[in-house]
Design brief:
single chain; alpha/beta; Beta-Lactamase; seven-stranded mixed beta sheet; six-stranded antiparallel beta sheet; 13 helices; 15 strands; 34% helix; 25% strand
Length: 402
């Protein structure tokens, strides 16, 4: 447990009896404010037999912060449901809502889910819309940012941002949309279909799917095609039907921006092919695939590593290891950096490989020959530069070979 986070939270707790009617409302305010101050992206409130366990996700890693007594569990959950306009008496089915701070653009997404000991609540702390970064500020690498800046000016084709959950895919898509809005000065028709809408982007007509009403991604995409769009953002390709509509839109004069869950840029093409998307659609419809991961950045308290075994098999010359101090809440890390790779099918050999349905390793090898800097190469560069550690790279990228 991070004692630093625990100490900070304990200091902020209201100094009044827990049975006081104002105690729980004040506790909930403290939870949300303290988590945001700590840079948390999510707050997890997990009920167990003896109470309610609270964890914060800071820099992509869950930190155990506090435990509330069992008598406060229903009161804390009910308060969050009231703030997010959910049904307090409905405890046996999942619910989703939002908390909007008055006079502020800050929003928090609240999700409840029934468990053995009560309702689990997860609060996603969304950034203010205007704080979503531009391409040059994302840390993707100068050549990747420059290439994306060029690609978003295209009039047709599909730009795919890939990676696991929590890797910043939506942030990158939003940065692309803001880039288009700024460069075109509102002279292009931009629409989006998302689940859910993470932030408001001025100049983009944003829509959120509603499965309960029968408004799913394929249905929404078909209808959007009749709204005279020029740029379409699709929150995520989840199935073959959505993928087919996306590529048909790309080939009929629309620029489509979307995300896809895959471990590498080459893996995106292989997985789409396995889903049944025809190779000619992939070859002609994809402008580029960007795959990205977020790894924690070492705090200034880190120290040089000396044990060869601490390299964990990575081909690095020098490296540093995490230590932990009061500034990083004892974790040894502060903030995150992006590891990205960009694959473009416009090279002849890669195009042929796609049409021949070559597997992921073959596609990745050809992309490297064409000049693609892989996520592993960026990882070793970051370690050599003292930005992150071998153990963090293995945590995020896994134990596979380079």
């Amino acid at each position: 447990m991070s004692e630093s986070l625990r100490t900070v939270f304990e200091r902020m707790l209201p100094q009044r009896p827990s049975h006081d009617t104002q105690y729980v409302p004040e506790v909930v305010v403290v939870i949300l404010a303290a988590a945001r101050t700590a840079g948390a992206s999510d707050v997890h409130l997990i009920p167990f037999a003896a109470g309610l366990r609270m964890l914060w996700r800071v820099d992509g890693v869950l930190q155990d912060v506090w435990s509330f007594p069992v008598e406060l569990v229903p009161r804390i959950v009910a308060r969050l449901k009231v703030l997010s306009e959910l049904l307090t008496y409905q405890t046996e089915v999942p619910q989703e809502g939002r908390i909007r701070e008055p006079g502020s653009a800050i929003e928090m997404r609240v999700s409840t889910f029934p468990t053995l000991f009560g309702e689990k609540v997860v609060v996603r702390l969304l950034s203010e819309s205007q704080q979503y970064q531009r391409l040059e500020g994302l840390g993707l690498g100068p050549e990747v940012a420059e290439k994306l800046s060029q690609l978003v000016q295209a009039t047709n084709g599909t730009l795919i941002v890939a990676g696991p959950a929590g890797s910043g895919k939506t942030t990158t898509l939003y940065a692309c949309l803001r880039e288009i809005v700024d460069k075109t000065q509102g002279q292009r028709s931009l629409v989006s279909l998302e689940d859910p809408i993470e932030a408001v982007i001025p100049g983009v007509s944003q829509s959120q799917i509603n499965l309960a009403a029968g408004f799913d991604l394929p249905t929404g995409l078909r209808s959007l095609m009749r709204q005279d769009p020029e740029v379409i953002m699709v929150g995520e390709i989840r199935d073959r039907e959505t993928a087919e509509i996306v590529f048909q839109a790309a080939l009929t004069g629309h620029l489509v921006l979307t995300t896809f869950h895959a471990g590498s840029a080459a893996g995106v093409i292989s997985r789409l092919s396995e889903m049944g998307i025809e190779p000619y659609l992939l070859r002609s419809g994809i402008l580029a695939v960007v795959c990205q991961r977020l790894v924690r950045k070492l705090c200034v308290c880190s120290r040089p590593g000396s044990d060869e075994s601490d390299k964990l098999g990575l081909p690095v010359d020098t490296f540093r290891v995490a230590v932990g101090c009061e500034h990083c809440h004892g974790t040894g890390y502060m903030g995150r950096i992006v590891l990205s790779e960009l694959l473009s099918p416009d090279q002849t050999e890669i195009g042929r490989a796609i049409l021949s349905r070559n597997d992921t390793p073959q596609l990745e090898a050809l992309a490297q020959q064409a000049g693609m800097v892989t996520r592993w190469q960026r990882a070793t560069t970051a370690i050599n530069a003292g930005l992150t550690s071998p153990i963090e790279i293995r945590r995020v990228l896994g134990l596979s070979s380079l």
